[in-house]
Amino acid sequence: MAIIYWVVIMDTFILPEEIRENGSLPMYHQIYAQLKKELFFGKYDVGARFFSIRDLRAKYDVNAETVRAAIDRLVEDGFVTSKPMSGIYVNSSKKRRSDIAMGNVWFCQLTGSRNYPFYSGILSALQRRAALAGMNVIVNHCTDVSDLERWFKPETGDGLVVTGDIDAAVIRWLQNTQRLRYVVVGNYDLPSGMPNVRIKIIEAVYRAMEHCAQSGRHKLAVIANSSAKVALGDIMTGISQAVAKGLVEKVGEVLDPQEDGYAGMLKLRDSGCDSVLVSEAAFFGLCRYVFEHKIKCPEELFVIRQGKNEENDIYGDVAAINVMSDKMIMAGKIISTLFGGGPILSELDCEVVKNFQVLEKLNKHIKREELK
Questions:
Q1: Cβ–Cβ contacts within 10 Å for residue 292, how many?
Q2: How buried is residue 43: exposed, middle or buried, by Cβ count under 10 Å (0-12/13-18/19+)?
Q3: pLDDT digits 0-9 by tens, 247-271
Q4: Inter-CA distances, 77 with 39, 80, 195, 236, 267, Å
Q5: What's the rounded Cα separation, in Å, for the pair 225 and 306?
Q6: Are the C-beta atoms of 122 and 325 separated by less than 8 Å?
Q7: Which are the contacts of 174, defined by CB distance < 8 A and separation ≥ 6?
Q8: What DSSP element (H or E) covers 230?
Q9: Rounded mean pLDDT, 304-314
């Protein structure tokens, strides 16, 4: 029998249609699984009266014994207190057991590179953030919609995170699959109303260009992955705005879906650039080129590292400017969108962080040049 899902993000976890008399789990356990999510993610005041046995019987169309068995589990877990002849009341979160499993977040990266830094950074943060909510993260790398459908077998109230190469077929599947809790993560050209957590790239790139110009570097080259079309478009828009303001001149670009940074620098060696904006996927190849060719950074090459993962500080003395998004905040937005009634669209600011140790080297270099 095919499983059916909703087309919209749901504000409630009470879904009577999903309760099956002949399911793999007893009916009381299925109801319990829904109600614990309702209490965990819902906005209930401590001490508030929860649904009565009679209310829940009517909602689920089951007998009182089945509902009581579900409520007994909630009482054991510390979610509620049942007072005879009075009702069921919501407990403080401090009374809940700390080892309660709250279900799953399914994380699907569609096609593309398995090791693309943006996706791995999101996954790492999501795993940490989901663990705080007692949830597991189930991960897969799917090639297409058929592969996604074969893999995605959710329990009641589970959520799906989709990122990677989102094409029209994926968008149609997400829109048309009923009763589906999902969010698309990343910068995509999506139809209105699709849940999306994305980052503000244009403004961040423009601020990075301001820092570049202030440091006396005005001839810019770009090395980036062309397969991330919307994100690349945002990067180029930020650069175009800086060019229009006279901050920098774009003297070269290497936009290649397989770009590793090293080949990009080979192509740019005659461009005359004194600065380069490089995407995170190509950063380490650029570093290899810099080391092999004994190029001093930032004196000879001012590097803007676009999309740095916060925890990855290897070769930290190469980039003068790091543009990064806080993946833990992003993970929190994902969880909120899936389970907490968060906004359909969340746009996160990027941090533009100066590497003061590297910039100090540039200042000393400039002073030495001025004294000559």
A1: 10
A2: exposed
A3: 999 999 999 877 789 999 999 999 9
A4: 11, 8, 32, 52, 62
A5: 11
A6: no
A7: 162, 180, 182, 184, 194
A8: helix 229-244
A9: 86
Instruction: Give me the helix-helix angle, 117-132 and 327-339, nearest 10°.
Output: 60
Q: Tell me which H or E stretch contains 136.
A: strand 136-142
Please choose, from the candidates 230, 236, 287, 280, the residue with its C-alpha nearest in 3D space to the C-alpha of residue 122: 280
Copy the structure tokens of residue 147: 């592969």
Q: Which residue has the tokens 């030495």?
A: 368
Inter-residue contact 346 to 9 (CB < 8 Å): no
Residues in the chain: 372
In Å, how far from its chain's centre is CA 38? 24
192 to 167, 195, 231, 303, 306: CA distances (angstroms): 15, 9, 18, 36, 27
Where is average pLDDT lowest: 86-90, 93-97, 210-214? 93-97
Q: With contact defined as beta carbons under 8 Å apart, do 92 and 54 qualify? A: no
Measured from the Cβ of residue 76, the count of other Cβ atoms closer than 10 Å reads 11
- Map out the domains of the chain with their CATH numbers: 16-95 (1.10.10.10), 104-198 (3.40.50.2300), 200-325+348-371 (3.40.50.2300)
Helix (H, G, I), strand (E, B) or coil at 33: helix
Half-sphere exposure of 324 (CA within 13 A, CB side): 21
The values of phi and psi at residue 138, to 5°, are -100, 125
Question: For residue 134, which of 169, 99, 109 has the smallest C-alpha distance?
Answer: 99
Question: What distances in angstroms separate CA 128 from CA 43, 290, 330, one per listed residue?
Answer: 23, 34, 12
The answer to whether the peptide bond before residue 16 is cis (omega within 30 degrees of 0) is no
What the block records as the tokens of 64 is 């009182």
Distance CA 359, CA 335 (A): 37
Amino acid at 64: A
**Higher-confidence position of 228 and 176:** 176
Alpha-carbon distance of 194 to 191, in angstroms, equals 6
> How many CA atoms does the CB half-sphere of 17 hold within 13 Å?
8
pTM of the model: 0.83
